[in-house]
Design brief:
By secondary structure, the chain is α+β, with helices and mostly antiparallel strands. It contains 11 helices and 14 strands. The chain is 34% helix and 25% strand. Strand 4 and strand 5 form a beta hairpin. Helix 9 runs antiparallel to helix 10 and helix 10 packs across helix 11.
């Protein structure tokens, strides 16, 4: 049996010092829904596990229309789903968090952990990309802000350097007549990994029935989650119709670079990328028009 030193810091500074002091021999523990499995399987064998759940700054959800959302990296997914402001103003991110595993898993797993795991198929990452979320990272050299779409660098790898810690997400407050949505395709009805996931946010000009802003994020169709920039721009300034949405869907397919694996072929993933882009844009547009929220 491999002995592990367990640390439970109470502040961000304490956590950063511990992670910096032990370098590659230390692993942060947020929800542990991935790390504990890796430890049991022997995939990871750190000397130190640094539990982040008791750090107050990582457990807060703060929202105002003036300043937007500050979502702590260690907030459990179930708290995201149960938060009234999240359901009202960020329904796409909320429904993405509610798709992660079972209710038991959601009581531990966090949006921050979902991102830091570096999985291309993470559910919340395309939703975060769609919202233009930024990551506040703190380390021995100070702090920096990284756009979510730049956070993952390869499967299982991120921009975090030894001693650095993801503290929170900073997400702009929703503009008037805007909303977001997230959809994924999975082989089973629940508790499965996305074959394709797509998140989208839109802001509408209802006077002219046009899209004034849009962002589309893709998951499980590349080595990292993807900000489909050209697909997003394809609907901006365009009247809301099937042609504009179809153009965005085709550009989303072009942005994808999927592989064949046990969950689906590359060809199938490209097809599903187009289908989900059409559906998620339509869903976000409908929410923006009606002001409806996640249920």
């Amino acid at each position: 049996m491999h002995a592990i030193n367990y640390e439970s810091p109470k502040t961000v500074d304490e956590a950063v010092k511990l992670l910096a002091a032990h370098g590659e021999q230390a692993r942060p523990l947020c929800g542990g829904t991935d790390l504990i499995i890796q430890l049991r399987a022997g995939v990871r064998r750190p000397e130190y596990v640094v539990d982040l759940k008791n750090i107050r700054d990582l457990r807060r959800i703060e929202f105002s229309m003036q300043h937007g959302l500050r979502l702590g990296a260690a907030v459990p997914c179930i708290e995201v789903y149960e938060n009234g402001d999240m359901r009202k103003y960020y329904p796409g991110l909320t429904e993405a968090a509610h798709l992660i595993g079972s209710l038991q898993i959601q009581s531990r797993a966090s949006v921050g952990g979902n991102l830091c795991n570096g999985s291309p198929a993470a559910d919340t990452t395309p939703a975060l990309i769609a919202l233009g979320a930024k990551c506040r990272v703190v380390g021995p050299g100070g702090e920096r802000v990284v756009p979510v779409e730049d956070f993952c660098t390869a499967p299982g790898r991120t921009v975090l350097q030894p001693g650095e810690l993801l503290v929170e997400f900073q997400i702009p407050s929703p503009a008037r007549n805007s909303s977001d949505a997230y959809l994924r395709f999975i082989p089973r009805n629940e508790m499965d990994i996305a074959v394709v996931g797509v998140g989208a946010s839109v802001t509408l000009d209802l006077n002219d029935d046009r899209v004034s802003e849009a962002r589309i994020g893709l998951g499980a169709v590349g080595p990292t989650p993807i900000f489909a920039r050209e697909a997003s721009q394809a609907v901006v300034g365009k009247r809301i119709n099937d042609d504009a949405i179809e153009r965005a869907a085709q550009l989303a397919i072009a942005a994808a670079s999927p592989i064949d694996d046990m969950r689906g072929t590359a060809e199938f993933r490209r097809h599903v990328t187009g289908v989900l882009t059409r559906r998620v844009l339509a869903k976000a547009i409908e929410r923006a028009r009606t002001g409806s929220t996640s249920r």
